[in-house]
Amino acid sequence: MNGPGQFLSRFEANLPANYRGANEEVWSNNISQAALDQRFAEDKKTSDDWEAKKVNNGWQNGITEASKDKIRQDVIADFPTAISLVREYYKKFDNLMQYLSLLNPIDEGARRAYDEMIAANDPKMKADPVATALWKAFVVSKPDTSISLENQFIDFSTKSAASAETLRGSITDDRIAGTLNEFTAYETLTSALKAKLQNSDNYIGGMTKSGEGTLRLTGNSSYKGDTIINGGKLAVD
User: Fold this and answer.
1) Which residue, 71, 104, 131, 213, has most beta carbons within 10 Å?
2) Which residues contact 199 (CB under 8 A, 6 or more apart)?
């Protein structure tokens, strides 16, 4: 056995008496501290990033009514851009569908063009949270795919039954709910991380040798924790 390459916490090597002499256990791996150092860096970054986000968004005292009002104003400000993104998506979709309808059969080049259009427009539209919510609301309305989707979307985003105000209200409610869930989840997570970060022992790998057998370490190990021998023999070459 080559042994572990790293410790993620204190490791106990419990070897019975038959692990002696020619049968001794030899670990040739270099037992590294790197994984625990990386975990420390990641935990600290997660905690620091969340604190910075709270400051940037004015969430130091939680998601207050002022925070919710800001979300409402952000949605109003983002709405015209969101409508343009979804409309542009369906405009290109309609144009391509019209082109494909003229081909019989559909050739491979046309199929590639369709795939490239989806790849180019989906990420751009879906990267905008308001556009994504607007797009999903339109899909739920079950538009007629046999006619222009762009025209149906224009109608959808302006008619009284689905007015901009109604859509904005729905999107705002969803965003506020998502923000509240995010705040609760990250407060719980970072509270645990802060407590963990206060104790450096949580990020130091160490080993306890127990049992009557022999363990021989032949690698160049860099773990920072202590090595405790509770039984048997530990040899280091």
Assistant:
1) 131
2) none
